Amino acid sequence: MARKLSPEEIQVFKDLFDSYDPDKDGSITVEEFAKVMSSAPGKQPTQAEVEQIIKEVDLDGDGTINFNEFITMMTGLPYPPKDEEDAEYSKAWKEYEPSLNGSITASQFRQLMNGLGDPVTDVEVEQLLNNVDGEGKLSYKDYVHFMKNRNIEDDIVSGYQ
Ligand SMILES: [Ca+2]
Ligand SMILES: [Ca+2]
């Protein structure tokens, strides 16, 4: 699992980022990047080379490097770190309820869990829906909460095996 950056490390990156971003607008343009590169010793990169670097680092495609992209470039790891579990949960949920703001029914929930290869028992569904709003529907928040608690229980159980 990716190690989280400490606040001190983030501050170091922030200072470095600021030195690339003299107008402090929160993004490094091709021009700003080229300026730093050209003040560094060694071979001067061409405009095309700088553009190429920016292109590789520019994850959101806006033509500049923001702070998150900068850290990703420096560490070689996605920043902010993605919670892979959450991504998996939301992907499965979106097949039934794309906005993440609505709710799904018990039978949709069952299908969703089957799709994850993690079927739920009737008792689990019943308990879950009883704990929720009494309308027999499940919000995204309830679902994530359930998934997290369920995995913790699984971990505890497998810890004794
Ligand atoms: Ca700037
Ligand atoms: Ca960008």
TrEMBL record:
GO cellular component terms, A-Z: myosin II complex
Keyword line: Calcium, Repeat
Keyword Lipid metabolism: no
Short name of any one Pfam family annotated for the protein: EF-hand_7
UniProt xrefs under Gene3D superfamilies: EF-hand
Source domain of life: Eukaryota
GO MF annotations, alphabetized: calcium ion binding
Family annotation (CDD domains): EFh (cd00051)
UniProt cross-references to InterPro entries, sorted A to Z: CALM/Myosin/TropC-like, EF-hand-dom_pair, EF_Hand_1_Ca_BS, EF_hand_dom
Domain EF-hand, first and last residues per copy: 8-43, 45-80, 84-119
PANTHER family for this protein: CALMODULIN LIKE 3 (PTHR23048:SF0), MYOSIN LIGHT CHAIN 1, 3 (PTHR23048)
Protein name from the UniProt record: Calmodulin
Native organism: Neoarthrinium moseri
Lineage of the organism: Eukaryota, Fungi, Dikarya, Ascomycota, Pezizomycotina
